Amino acid sequence: MEAQGSRRRQLPVLLLWGARQQTVLCNESLMLEKLPACGKSFEEMMKKVDSKKWCNLTEFIMYYDNFTQCTEREANNASCFWPNPLAEGFITGIHKQFFSNCSSEKVHWEDPPDEILITLILIPVMLTCAMITLVVWCSKRSDILV
Q1: Which comes out higher in pLDDT, residue 3 or 64?
Q2: Cβ density class 7-31: b for 16+ within 10 Å, e for less
Q3: Pick from 26, 34, 68, 97: CA 20 to 30 A from residue 15's CA?
Q4: Assessment of whether the complete model's pTM goes beyond 0.90
């Protein structure tokens, strides 16, 4: 019985020790020192892409993937989680530098002409009425069901 009580006391101590081991402070200054190298590398790679194609992700997806992996690696090396507000701020700066002219074209939705709209509304209504009529008619004719 005493051994079991001893184990119960050790469990919270082990749990607390494990939590303490995982609590590592983020070295933000180290991360902010290293992230510009990722931006510089991305900038060098983007020079290979015509600036008119900067809004076409398929033209530089590999470069952007390398940039993302670099920022994640540098954040992790500084014992910081990724993404974090500082890394996001850095990434946003890179986005502003390269993609500020890439606005998404908003599609202007319009209602279809009245003739089409009325047809699209009436077809399901008429089908529903027809199905209800068919069900009621079949339920009154019990001789076909047998």
Answers
A1: 64
A2: eeeeeeeeeeeeeeeeeeeeebeeb
A3: 26
A4: no
